[in-house]
Amino acid sequence: MTLFPEGIPKLLQALESEEYVADPAIATSLYLAQQLEKPLLIEGHAGVGKTEIAKVLARLLGTELIRLQCYEGLDASTALYEWNYAKQLLHIRLQEKDGRSAKEAEAQIFGEEFLLKRPLLLAIRNGGRAPVLLVDEIDRSDEEFEAFLLEVLSDFQVSVPELGTLKAEKRPVVILTSNRSRELSDALRRRCLYLWIGYPSFAKELAIVRRKVPGASEALTVQVVALVQHLRRLKLAKVPGVSESLDWAAALLALHATQLSAQLVAETLGCAIKDESDLRKVEAELAAGRLPLGAGA
Ligand SMILES: Nc1ncnc2c1ncn2[C@@H]1O[C@H](COP(=O)(O)OP(=O)(O)O)[C@@H](O)[C@H]1O
Ligand SMILES: [Mg+2]
User: Fold this and answer.
1) Could you tell me the distance, in angstroms and rounded to a whole number, from the CA of residue 55 to the centre of ligand 2?
2) Is the CB of 45 under 6 A from ligand 1?
3) What's the mean pLDDT in 3-13?
4) Cβ–Cβ under 8 Å, residues 43 and 178
5) Over 60: is that where the pLDDT of 296 sits?
């Protein structure tokens, strides 16, 4: 599959047109992941736009997004498939009613149509249209699951004991994300291309908030971004991400604010600061007049 054959500048433009503010590093990684048909592992702090990339990419490709949200205890069958017992039973009953033996019916109930396909199998059995498979927050899953995933990603086929091997009709475009709550294995890293997304620069964040909260006044947008950028330097327990800037700007807009004031900041701090000790710290900074509230500070 050759997508964006016109190259990286065009891809950058396309991302922008889908409201994703990218930079050449991001566009290059996406481009290469497709050209080389390799999974792309994206690491970065919470709220820097990792998950959003997969959504935007699926929209750009006009294809389905299949998301596997990882969590502690996620196991292979939840990610891959389960047998649809209810459907199997019903089928046996109907067959018996038609006068066929249970044995005959049994022979039929282990077909693909009796599988409840979970995200990984859905991504593999895609009817010839490569979807975008998003394996989100892989760092939350256990190491055993990571090893299993690696196996799936190496040959895009799954063996179902009752059925045999199910191969991918078309390889999905795979994006994995990690918040780095634990180290991923070297084997998985080697399998993937790697992209690190850091907190955005002032200019990039400004561009994101302008795009995503277009109703906010320019002065307010600049103030919110400058303030969040400042907060990130305060060594907080929960550093605000881009989501927080967006939430904050949207909240202030909902309050019909066009300018920040110390009082407004105090009243809406919960949009950006989500931890009690951080809240105290920032409140103290605010009271001491050490937070930038001026335009473009
Ligand atoms: N570069 C960007 N361009 C546009 N929106 C962005 C960008 N980065 C982050 N966002 C927005 O910030 C929010 C958080 O992004 P998300 O992808 O969920 O973060 P992550 O998965 O890294 O935790 C989303 O609403 C997303 O639309
Ligand atoms: Mg995410």
Assistant:
1) 11
2) no
3) 83
4) yes
5) no
